[in-house]
TrEMBL record:
Thiolase C-terminal domain location: 253-374
Residues in Thiolase N-terminal domain copies: 5-244
Pfam families documented for this protein: Thiolase_C, Thiolase_N
Record-level Gene Ontology MF annotations: acetyl-CoA C-acyltransferase activity
Enzyme class of the recorded protein, top EC level: transferase
UniProt keyword Acyltransferase, yes or no: yes
InterPro entries found in the cross-reference section: Thiolase, Thiolase-like, Thiolase_C, Thiolase_CS, Thiolase_N
The protein's name: Acetyl-CoA C-acyltransferase
Origin species: Amycolatopsis acididurans
Organism classification: Bacteria, Bacillati, Actinomycetota, Actinomycetes, Pseudonocardiales
Homology family: Belongs to the thiolase-like superfamily. Thiolase family.
Coiled-coil portions: none
Domain of life: Bacteria
Keywords, sorted A to Z: Acyltransferase, Transferase
Length: 376
């Protein structure tokens, strides 16, 4: 089987809800990413076989195959197709998997993977506004559980014994690491300015356990989950160019990372957010490496209990977990987050000479993706 490599990865700054990116249509924001990918690589867009784009709330501005309309908005040839993937929060990580699989199988040679979500314009839950997706048999099977991720996060915190203080300590650390990354220029080469927005807008410097203490529980009275230890509602997009080493040489491109393995798994849909634990085990088996071989882990911070439970179950090194902060500080534009994490991870690996990186994402409905990348 052929190898798949990533030759470029770019992202927008992540905008706060109603922030600097709120006025952008998802197709136009995506087009900025496609245009920058072509500019940085110097490729003629006509060599691209497909664009695989993640998006979660595929209604309104983001309906009718936003992947295809992103291609057209970018001014790329009409002959280039585009498709839109929805695996909940892991949508653009799945887009990267699909792109790599197409290249490795020999069916395609050059594929763009990425994703977008402008939550300021298409609110969280908009896709459920006209109906309930679960159906009576699912509700009967799970005793009419609401499938509310915040409730699931409360259940995880209770099961693993995480106090509010522990969750808030982790959340404050996310902001601290993200602020340090901004100050150290860790994001400089991966970011593409969008109008006046040049930096991630969600970082709250000086966040402490004490400053978080005044926030009320969001889902359960006397609960431990609140806005400050949950991911931020955000806007953003990201894109990666995937090809083979041979095609990269033909196009005059230098690979940055090799796609080693990807895995997807299901888990308890009531706890819902624990899928990264078995997904990590599965992808490591496929990659033929151990967790100690991995120099950096990106575990999406949907809620603070998610990476903490992952850490507790895997025994991973906490210093390697989300070293640049995560979604609690930097935001979580749903369909774009998988590609954003991959972009952050690849650049962090390159900047620090890290051979292997792993990213994993919990997802609505109890699924999860995990991916292992290797520095070239």
């Amino acid at each position: 089987m052929r190898e798949a490599v990533i030759v470029e990865a770019v992202r927008t700054p992540v905008g706060r809800r109603k922030g600097g990116l709120a006025g952008w249509h998802a197709a136009d924001l995506s087009a900025v990413m496609l245009g920058e990918l072509a500019r940085r690589t110097g490729i003629d867009p006509s060599v691209v076989d497909d664009v695989v784009w993640g998006c979660v709330s595929q209604v309104g501005d983001q309906s009718s195959n936003i992947g295809r309309y992103s291609v057209l908005a970018a001014g790329w040839p009409e002959s280039i197709p585009g498709t839109t993937v929805n695996r909940a929060c892991g949508s653009s990580q799945q887009a990267l998997d699909f792109a790599a699989h197409a290249v490795m199988s020999g069916q395609q040679d050059v594929v763009v993977a990425g994703g977008v979500e402008v939550m300021s314009r298409v609110p969280l839950g908009a896709a459920r506004a006209t109906g309930m997706p679960f159906g009576p048999k699912v509700l009967e099977r799970y005793q009419d559980f609401s499938f509310n991720q915040g409730i699931s996060a409360e259940k995880i915190a209770q099961k693993w014994g995480f106090s509010r203080t522990r969750l808030d300590e982790f959340s404050a650390s996310s902001h601290e690491r993200a602020a340090a990354a901004q100050d150290n220029g860790a994001f400089a080469t991966q970011l593409v300015a969008v109008g006046p927005v040049t930096a991630d807008e969600g970082v709250r410097r000086g966040t402490t356990v004490d400053t978080l203490a005044g926030l009320s529980p969001a889902f359960v009275e006397d609960g431990v989950i609140h806005a400050g230890n949950s991911s931020q509602i955000s806007d953003g997009a990201a894109a990666l160019l995937v090809t083979t080493p041979e095609k990269a040489r033909e196009l005059g491109l230098k690979p940055v990372a090799r796609y080693v393995a990807g895995a997807v798994t299901g888990a308890d849909p009531v706890l819902m957010l624990t899928g990264p634990i078995p997904a990590t085990e599965k992808v490591l088996r496929k990659a033929g490496i151990s967790l100690t071989d991995v120099g950096a882990y990106e575990v999406n911070e949907a809620f603070a209990p998610v990476p903490l439970a992952w850490l507790a179950e895997t025994g991973a090194d906490p210093d390697r977990l989300n070293p640049l902060g995560g979604a609690i500080a930097l935001g979580h534009p749903l369909g774009a987050t998988g590609a954003i994490l991959a972009t952050r991870l690849i650049n962090h690996m390159r900047d620090n000479g890290i051979r292997y990186g792993l990213q994993t994402m919990c997802e609505g409905g109890g699924t999860a993706n995990a991916t292992v990348l290797e520095l070239v």
